[in-house]
Amino acid sequence: MFQGAAQFNLDGKGRLTIPTRYRDMLLAHCAGQLVLTADADGCLLLYPQPEWQPIREKLMQLSAFNPKIRSLQRFLVGHAEDVVMDAAGRVLISATLRDYAKLDKRVMLVGQGNKFELWDEARWQAQYEKMTSFSMDDLPPELNGFTL
């Protein structure tokens, strides 16, 4: 569904304009109803509402008596915010989430299949350098035999 990376600017109110190529798909799939939440890597995750709902339900069905699970629930669900694309295809990113991800003006929107990652441009560049400098010996065993 969503793939590719592109640089954008947040406007003065902290709004992100969703790329035109995704707007019609998002309107058809979820009527522009989206969910933003924090990610442990320091970016934000932007999900269409129907993609987020099963994740939220699975998380909340886990036992909150386990401190690690409770922390994950608190982190992901606690930061989750419903946002709606406006008529111009923009979504407002709250100050809380902008502060968390250190989003100022220049951001990267990175497609990840069923969701987007939203990065501060400088943080994305650092992440990108880490990704491109790995060794094949560093790959997890799940990728043994994986070919492109």
Mean pLDDT: 93
**Uncertain stretches of 5 or more adjacent residues:** none
Order of helices and strands: EEHEEHHEEHEEH
| Quaternary | single chain
CATH-derived topology: Chemotaxis protein chec
Please provide the count of β strands. Answer: 8
Count of helices?
5
**Rounded Rg:** 16 Å
CATH architectural name: 3-Layer(aba) Sandwich
What is the name of the CATH superfamily? Answer: Transcriptional regulator MraZ domain
What is the strand and helix layout of this fold?
Layout lengths: L4 E5 L5 E3 L2 H11 L2 E6 L5 E5 H13 L5 H13 L1 E4 L5 E3 L2 H7 L4 E6 L4 E5 H12 L16
Describe the structure.
This protein has helices at 20-30, 49-61, 67-79, 95-101, 121-132, and strands at 5-9, 15-17, 33-38, 44-48, 81-84, 90-92, 106-111, 116-120. The chain is 38% helix and 25% strand. The strands form two sheets. Strands 1-7-8-4-3-5 form a six-stranded antiparallel sheet, sandwiched between helices. The protein is of the alpha+beta class. The radius of gyration is 16 Å and the shape is globular. The model has no long low-confidence stretch (mean pLDDT 93). It has one domain (5-135): Transcriptional regulator MraZ domain (Chemotaxis protein chec), CATH 3.40.1550.
